[in-house]
Design a protein that fits this description.
Layout: H1 27-53, H2 55-69, H3 73-90, H4 98-107, H5 110-119, H6 129-138, H7 141-145, H8 149-165
């Protein structure tokens, strides 16, 4: 009896396993994917809505930067109170009757205007901030031109901070 020696020709190829799909096989994964997509769309929609709502803020900050770089400091200082009033008028309000809210804001002056600015500010404002704004709006040109550079920069920085961080009813 001769021993049977295997040869390479006797080898056969093994069959490949059936391909496995990468798609989820159960409905739970599809549900999870759907919930994830709905959540992502809701988040994106909310971000877009906030971005649109804050358009007035971005425009005011751009105008404030232009005023700060302006070569005419007198005109820039004169426009600061008007810019803050326009920002306050543009703020979205919680009530459905926006016309009345704008009328109330437009009529604010003196202590009421100061109270409004403080109420919507994220940090404490100077106690005489509305008075400083009134001075910018109504004082003679010589008084405004006599303001020290540090006080001008402080006014611009306070206005910029208020525009950037004021509270808005959502």
């Amino acid at each position: 009896m001769t021993a049977h020696v295997p040869s390479i020709e006797q080898l056969t190829e093994l069959g490949l396993p059936a391909p496995v799909s990468y798609l989820p096989q159960t409905w739970g994964w599809w549900l999870l994917l759907g919930l994830l997509l709905v959540g992502l769309l809701a988040w994106a929609g909310r971000r877009y809505w906030l971005w649109r709502r804050d358009r007035y803020r971005r425009e005011a900050l751009a105008r404030l930067a232009e005023l700060q770089r302006s070569s005419d400091p007198l005109a820039a200082l004169r426009e600061l109170p008007e810019l803050l009033k326009r920002v306050a008028l543009s703020m979205p309000s919680r009530g459905s009757n926006d016309c009345n809210a704008n009328t109330v804001v437009a009529a604010l002056g003196g202590e009421d205007w100061q109270a409004f600015l403080v109420r919507h500010s994220a940090q404490p404002l100077p106690a005489d901030f509305s008075q400083q704004l009134a001075t910018l709006a109504y004082a003679p040109d010589t008084v405004l031109l006599a303001l020290p550079a540090a006080q001008r920069n402080q006014l611009f920085s306070t206005c910029k901070h208020w525009v950037e961080h004021h509270h808005v009813a959502a």
